[in-house]
Amino acid sequence: MLNKKRPFHLMAKPAGPDCNLACKYCFYLEKEVLFGEQKVHRMNDEVLDAYIKQYCESQNTPEIVFAWQGGEPTLMGIEFFQKAVLLQKKYSAGRPVQNAFQTNGTLINNDWCKFLAKENFLIGLSLDGPRHIHDKFRVDRGGKPTFDRVMKALKLMKAHRVEFNTLTCVTRQNAPFAVEIYEFLKGTGSTFLQFIPIIERKPDNEAARLGLKLALPPDLAADDNDDRVMPWSVQPEQYGQFLIDIFDEWVRHDVGNVFVQMFDVMLNGWMDMPPPLCIFAERCGDSLIIEHNGDIYACDHFVYPDFLRGNILETPMTDLTGSPEQKKFGDDKFDSLPDYCKKCDVMFVCHGECPKHRFIYTPDGKPGLNWLCEGYKMFMHHIDPYMRTMAKLLRENRPCADIMRMIPPKAG
Predict the structure, then answer these.
(1) Of 173, 132, 151, which Cα lies nearest the Cα of 25?
(2) In sequence order, what are the residues at sequence separation of 6 or more whose Cβ sits closer than 8 angstroms to the Cβ of residue 126?
């Protein structure tokens, strides 16, 4: 019987926080301290079977989407995912299954590509830009650069016709190179681009107690309004300008051919449609994660003891994801917003962004403002006339790409 409760999405971390890289800005590697003395974290067959069975039964959708992340999921080996695919076919009740797989790419070889192509996995490849940008933070456990290995994986995936997109982390150091990064990614053949702002705070008292090196989300942190960010954290205006610089290239040359996740999300807002990304939703709580041992947490950015919902080997998945605690977690995204945000002219598309980033004060001295607020305002005000035009085109059953003929060339 299919689940009748509220829909949810679950992202699986079959290798937990384990990774063969040691990216300097990674927020998940340190989560290994939450699992005690265990040094290697791998999802066993019992958890895998329970996860796939319960998740298939929970989804009231014509297609079932599985998402695999990490750490680094390729550490599990191909055989693990072959088992996963067989279990999906067993429990999906005849419905098609889609697998999305986020990887650093360094372990991808011909055998991996044959499997991924055969089973139609969609690959998200972490790639921060050209060599001098990518290798600044994305290094292996020995501190060696990874750019060449990632590019080798990208070429292999293209040769095997593995569907892929790219995920790029935006830091204080690479934000000034927006157009260079964008043109490089296009040149690799990536046609769907994700840009993720990296924002982490220096450890607070609660983080130190747990043995963590980064601060907890602001509602848990002992110094809950401390805005001392790590040196790689992107600055608000930097991020806003980064998005503007890429948007100005995209809207003149690439609409309809290159898809930028952020721009798709923005267009949904101007079309009065629900955002496809949880951080921009009015309320959240429907995108949880399952760790290697079957533990379910409220969110990928809230993997801390207070946000552990339970284990699927002990409690049905739907009871955990639909718990009162999880509903409150999702409602708090809106309910905890300061009035300053609720009166903002871009509230309709921003919705305060992710609660993890709400650790500064509003101009009137209230806590709970998002670190990226000023950057988002810059960006959203800049794109407003373009988004209005594209929304109008769509309502007239015309392609958004028509906007490119309506915009004069960029000055200079």
Answers:
(1) 173
(2) 102, 103, 104, 105, 138, 150, 166, 167, 168, 169
The answer to whether 130 and 154 are in contact (CB under 8 A) is: no
For residue 71 the two structure tokens come to 């750490």
Q: Tell me the per-residue pLDDT of 184-232, one tens digit each, with 9 for 90 and over.
A: 999 999 999 999 999 999 988 888 888 998 888 886 654 444 558 999 9
- DSSP E strands: which ranges in 171-265? 192-197, 259-260
Residue 353 and residue 277: Cα distance in Å, rounded?
10
pLDDT tens, residue by residue, 285-317: 999 999 999 999 999 999 999 999 999 999 999
Query: Is 282 exposed, middle or buried (CB count within 10 Å of its CB: 0-12, 13-18, 19+)?
Result: middle
This model's pTM is above 0.85: yes
| Residues catalogued as catalytic | 300
Angle between helices 178-187 and 236-253 (to 10 degrees): 50
What DSSP state is assigned to residue 364? T
**Angstrom distance (rounded) from CA 336 to CA 88:** 39
pLDDT of 89-126, one tens digit each?
A: 999 999 999 999 999 999 999 999 999 999 999 999 99
**How does strand 367-369 pair with strand 64-68?**
unpaired
Report which residue type is found at 152.
Answer: K
